[in-house]
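TICKET: design request
STATUS: open
ATTACHED STRUCTURE:
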């Protein structure tokens, strides 16, 4: 399983805003990877955790997307089989609690 971690967001150039403005755009922490569930007909799922309840978690497994708010953790069952790329993001994503998994719906 391969995993990549990135931080995305807008960077502000020095002097681009007046000195009275300290506003910056929120940055989302993203964790991505690939998970294989080819044994026994398993489906690929994605579990993510975040630190702050008010943030929204974004899930993408093999092109199927889902968003969840007001949760500290959530498991997204994609319904997709074999090998799938996945991505989870949130402003307060916990990297240690974010991973792909196999599940068997039957």
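STATUS: resolved
RESOLUTION: sequence designed for all positions
ATTACHED SEQUENCE:
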């Amino acid at each position: 399983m391969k995993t990549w971690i990135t931080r995305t967001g807008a960077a502000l150039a020095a002097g681009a805003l007046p000195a009275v403005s300290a506003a910056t755009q929120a940055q989302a922490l993203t964790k991505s990877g690939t998970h294989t569930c080819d044994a026994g007909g398993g489906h690929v799922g994605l579990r993510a955790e975040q630190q702050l309840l008010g943030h929204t978690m974004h899930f993408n497994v093999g092109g199927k997307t889902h968003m969840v708010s007001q949760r500290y953790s959530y498991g997204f069952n994609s319904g997709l089989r074999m090998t799938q790329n996945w991505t989870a993001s949130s402003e307060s994503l916990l990297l240690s609690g974010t991973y792909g998994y196999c599940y068997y719906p039957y």
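CLOSING REMARK: Residues 8-24 have pLDDT under 50 and may be disordered. The chain is about 0% helix and 60% strand.
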